[in-house]
Design brief:
The protein has one domain (3-287): TIM Barrel. The chain has an 8-stranded parallel sheet. The model has no long low-confidence stretch (mean pLDDT 94). The chain contains 11 helices and 8 strands. By secondary structure, the protein is α/β, with parallel strands linked by helices. It is 41% helix and 14% strand.
Amino acid sequence: MITILDGGMGQELIARSGKATGLWSTQALLDQPELVRAVHDDYFAAGAQVATTDTYAILPDRLEPHDLLDRLPELSTRACEIACAARDAHGSGLVVGSMGPQGFSYQPDLAPPADQAAEVYADIARIHAKHVDVHVLETMASVDQARGGLMGAGVTGKPVWLALSVDDADGTKLRSGEDLVDALPLIAEFAPAAVFINCSLPEAVTQGLPVLAGNGVPIGAYANGFTGITDSFDHVGATVDVLSARTDLGPDRYAEFAQGWVDAGATLIGGCCEVGPAHIATLAARFK
């Protein structure tokens, strides 16, 4: 049985609000929380069985430059409550608490060591745990980054999903340059409830998934729709308007990639940045 995840939150919010800031998806929580609810509602209406909380960027190192660090518990709770309300209105579904990478997306060299990162993730996981069914560590781009996330998220006793981001040119490698296979011992050590490849080109996801298959844990995939990650998108405060969306990745084409992921053993399928409700509707029609 295939579980249909939701699609990207941050890029969908930017498209609807018309503004990209250094706070990314957190900006909508501050200014237009009703947009966050609308995105969740639209994904459920499209056939998603999961609401991923708008908390990817609610991290100390993302909030502190904007003098918002003291609002981390409030913003985290608000995002979780919005996702829960959407799920309740839909009548079914999982609420999954997102935790993004510390340092910055796609920049594992900027992440703190695992022990230090784990303390931050543990604090956030405890906030999320009051509301969510599952924790998901998203866009983990090195073995040490993933280890820190798993160490921290595991404190609540709730299931933890691990989503790894791979090199767009070679999906058998993490963005750190490490081989994807080097992350497999984390499965035995931490027993995540599922392992994914996320926020990478769909072609790279296709390359990487066979590495994850056959290791005794459910696997999944949710790719992004960017043309690639530019060198300038490498620090806290960088805005996503420096990234470009592909024009050749409509819902049908994305579903063709997803069919390959299912054929490789994936049982949880969704979308990341630039993959919206129309894509999810096509996935639901094909796989549910």
